[in-house]
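Give me structure tokens for this 156-residue protein.
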Amino acid sequence: MSKEEEIRALEEAYVAFRERIAGLPDEAYGEVWLGEWNLAQLLAHMAGWYRQMAIALERISRGERPSPEGVDWSDVEAWNRRFAAEAKSGRAALDDWDAAFHEYLAAAKAAPTELFGTDPDRNRPRIASRLLQSAGTGHFAEHLPELEAWLASRPR
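Here you go.
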């Protein structure tokens, strides 16, 4: 996919996910349904990764390695716990998630086109594409079915 196609797919996934939660009442954000997490914690987890990957996109755009010196993203579960612990309450969680997504999207749009797509020599996505797929489109694909199952189980 081209940079434009990847960004469009990211934006479409965001809109589809957001449409499902935008009308929820404030108290719904505190309902535990994803293991030990509630919606506010899920959104904080996603927002945390958006912010970290926005940093990565900005760094690779300058020709630097994705993570800052001394930062290691490999312990995903520890990062997830940290992000979930920082969750805002109620609809403030949605506002924070929106803001983080737009930071991430802006960093993706600003990244050089040549950092997207597939590297034909290595037959794998280039770095910016991997950053969009991991924290973005892949993250939506991972959590959307869980979200839909929860929403279907809630009293109407």
